[in-house]
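Researcher: We plan to redesign the surface later, but first we want a full-length starting point. Tokens attached.
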């Protein structure tokens, strides 16, 4: 499969993030941010049906000089792997590729110091062990037997390597929740990283659903790499796939419009004391998402912010 790289000149990070949120509503699968430049990737076969809408979006933002460049899959994967760096999440978790050295931790070892050594000769994406996130107390170095030490993700053309703020936020938020014995749904699962994390946090069953076949196939590979194939069940489909199913926790790192449209379907699957954890939304969207959740019988429980993006968790009002 060949991909099209759309290079977009941007004024600042805020404009870049707005474009990512809007292009994600189209069939763009991955994004790369550079200084004053955003690169968005879409399967070549999907561009003809989306080009008019994409060009109109760029015009709305007053953007000129954007370029479409076709990239062969083999070349793209080689470049992507060469640029993929380990991701650290609050001193609790490393998301790495198979070609990175494993972070080996012996019992009683200080994980935060291990992260420092692991990242010493690399540009690890994420906060270091002495910093804090925008809206939560930092817990770097805290021991918790439930927490995994690393997740292995083979970087390909699917969203969810931990580099984007929303995946980082979801990962950080999940480590504050108890997944022991839970039935979990990861909606819009991408690489499967969040589903894998749920399994390693103690979930007994995780459905990982994505509408994109490329992401679905990549998630199968990653699930096997992490040894959680007995727990995580990848599926190809949309919100209709979950009809009649029941979950204790629903994860949805998608985008504002899909969240608003499909939230009733997610909530209909939740158990009496279930939780909904969402991201893929900008800070400016928080009020809209919270209002919709409350209308559907949920109550805001927590919030995390990073680089203009947000992750929110909700519970049933009666919980």
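Model: Full-length starting sequence:
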């Amino acid at each position: 499969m060949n991909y099209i790289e759309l290079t977009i000149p941007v004024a600042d990070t805020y404009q870049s993030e707005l474009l990512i949120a809007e292009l994600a509503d189209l069939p763009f699968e991955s994004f790369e941010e550079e200084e004053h430049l955003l690169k968005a990737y879409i399967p070549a076969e999907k561009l003809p049906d989306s080009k008019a809408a994409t060009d109109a979006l760029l015009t709305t933002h007053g953007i000129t000089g954007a370029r479409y460049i076709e990239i062969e899959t083999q070349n793209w994967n080689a470049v992507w792997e060469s640029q993929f760096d380990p991701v650290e999440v609050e001193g609790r978790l490393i998301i790495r590729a198979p070609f990175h050295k494993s972070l080996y931790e012996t019992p009683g070892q200080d994980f935060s110091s291990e992260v420092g050594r692991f990242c010493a000769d690399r540009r690890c994406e994420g906060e270091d062990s002495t910093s804090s996130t925008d809206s939560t107390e930092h817990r770097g170095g805290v021991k918790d037997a439930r927490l995994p030490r690393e997740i292995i993700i083979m970087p390909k053309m699917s969203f969810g390597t931990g580099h984007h703020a929303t995946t980082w936020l979801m990962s950080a938020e999940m480590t504050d929740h108890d997944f022991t014995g839970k039935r979990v749904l990861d909606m819009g699962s991408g690489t499967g990283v969040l589903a894998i994390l749920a399994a390693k946090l103690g979930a007994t069953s995780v459905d990982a659903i994505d509408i994109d076949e490329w992401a679905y196939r990549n998630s199968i590979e990653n699930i096997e790499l992490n040894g959680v194939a007995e727990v995580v069940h990848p599926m190809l489909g949309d919100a209709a796939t979950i009809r009649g199913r029941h979950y204790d926790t629903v994860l949805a790192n998608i985008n504002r419009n899909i969240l608003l449209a499909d939230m009733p379907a997610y909530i209909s699957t939740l158990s009496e004391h279930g939780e909904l954890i969402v991201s893929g939304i900008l800070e400016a969207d928080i009020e809209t998402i919270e209002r919709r959740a409350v209308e559907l019988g949920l109550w805001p429980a927590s919030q995390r912010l990073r680089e203009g993006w947000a992750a929110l968790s909700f519970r049933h009002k009666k919980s």
